[in-house]
Design brief:
- The chain is α+β, with helices and mostly antiparallel strands and 412 residues long.
- It is built from 14 helices and seven strands.
- 40% of the residues lie in helices and 8% in strands.
- The strands form two sheets. It has a five-stranded antiparallel beta sheet. Strands 1-2 form a two-stranded antiparallel ribbon.
- It is globular.
- The two termini are 27 Å apart.
Length: 412
């Protein structure tokens, strides 16, 4: 998570996807990232450049650029509002591959206290996967309007599956809800969107996927895209290093882990960095196991919303609104809920449901089947966008959660 990268592309159906993130991040064919399952802002890129092990089954990649500067978060889907994140310059100059490998092993060992020999031995098991390169190289799909996007995530089958999942695990989910304030149905909706309630957590070797993207991130050959491609490679390189740290901390055999083609893992599709930062021990066994412990999965998704997104217990997520005739929709630069109701009223927005006094929100515009739809998103809506930086993803998760809870949905 960013949870980034799940089994679906978060901007719309996508292979993975990342999630993210997020890094959902990449979510299967419905969303790439993310977490994206689960974006991870402010990651420091190591000068982590590795080489192709002799066992690798494809030709070595071209030399990779070296960089020791912080990375940008994973790129947002096309329909996402741009997020303001200052990104220091990145060195685009290539370095010799052997130097890259030595730097990766040296820096990962020093950063996480892992013997270099163990890193070398694990890298020797990794393979470059052409399927991962192909998946990440797919042309961006057109941005679907809301009335086409929503049915990909909210179907009667998915609603029924969510209700059955909630019924089976109600005591554990309600325990987490009481502890964190994150509604049980929202946790279930995330799992439903990311992995179809655990049915599709990804079949790629996480080690191979991250190894591929860390050292062979696809290049378009377009000079205008080079910096982004380098930053993305460095992002995945850092995730590979964090995978080593995760294995050491949680006593996991990282060569045996499976997930999305972007390296997102488990029902919630957490990237390694999100796993390390936000996963919690929900069952009290002393481990954070997002592969086999549902208690840990539920508690970790809720913890992500609280710690990463600033979830407000009992607060609203989003309410429908009207826009006064003749007024133009207001599209802020991101979905931070920084606008008072008075600010929004001055721009023509009126909430159609009661909202807490003093609440702040962000306007959300969607292309509905019968014309534009207007919503006001609050802090808890923003929290969902931290899982996957997409306004439609956040709205789909929210509305799915409402349907799972038995509430009537507005038309798409």
């Amino acid at each position: 998570m960013r949870p980034g990268w799940g089994v679906f592309r978060k901007s719309g159906p996508w292979p993975q996807r990342m999630k993210s993130l997020r890094f959902r991040g990449l979510a299967g064919d419905a969303n790439l990232p993310a977490m994206t399952k689960p974006a991870l802002t402010g990651l420091l890129a190591l000068v982590l450049l590795g080489c192709v092990p002799k066992e690798a089954k494809v030709a070595p990649p071209p030399p990779s650029p070296a960089a020791t500067r912080p990375l940008q978060p994973a790129a947002a889907p096309a329909e996402a509002a741009p997020e303001k994140t200052a990104a220091p310059p990145v060195d685009l100059a290539p370095v010799p591959f052997e130097t890259a490998r030595a730097n990766f092993v040296r820096d990962t060992s020093a950063r996480y206290g892992i013997p270099a020999a163990r890193i070398e031995a694990t890298l020797a098991q990794a393979q470059f996967l052409d399927s991962v390169v192909a998946a990440m190289s797919r042309p961006a799909e057109r941005v679907k309007p809301w009335h086409e996007y929503r049915p990909m995530f909210i179907s009667q089958a998915r609603i029924d599956g969510g209700r059955a999942f909630l019924a089976r695990h109600r005591p554990a989910l309600e325990r987490v809800q009481a502890q964190t304030g994150v509604p049980a149905e929202l946790i279930v909706a995330i799992i439903g969107v990311e992995t179809s309630y655990g049915a599709n957590t990804g079949k790629y070797s996480v080690l191979d996927a991250l190894y591929t993207l860390a050292f062979r991130y696809p290049r378009s050959g377009d000079p205008a895209k080079l910096e982004r491609e380098v930053r993305r490679e460095l992002f995945f390189r850092d995730e590979l290093a964090q995978l080593f740290a995760l294995g050491q901390e949680e006593k996991l055999d990282i060569a045996a882990l499976t997930g999305s083609y972007a390296g997102a893992m488990g029902m919630g599709q957490f990237m390694p960095s999100s796993y390390r930062q936000f996963a919690v021990d929900g069952d009290g066994d002393g481990r954070r196991d997002l592969f086999n412990s549902l208690d840990d999965v539920f508690a970790s998704i809720a913890n992500y919303f609280v710690k990463k997104g600033g979830w407000v217990r009992g607060g609203p997520v989003a309410v429908p609104a009207t826009l006064a005739p003749g007024r133009e929709p207001f599209n802020p630069e991101d979905w931070t809920p920084s606008w008072t109701l008075a600010d929004l009223a001055a721009r023509g927005y009126t909430p159609q449901q009661p909202v807490p006094a003093g609440a702040t929100a962000t306007p959300v515009s969607l292309e509905g089947s019968a014309g534009p739809q207007y919503w006001l998103g609050f802090q808890n809506y923003y929290a969902i966008t931290r899982y996957n930086i997409s306004k439609m993803y956040a709205m789909a998760v929210y509305q799915l959660s409402q349907a799972i809870a038995g509430r009537e949905l507005p038309p798409a």
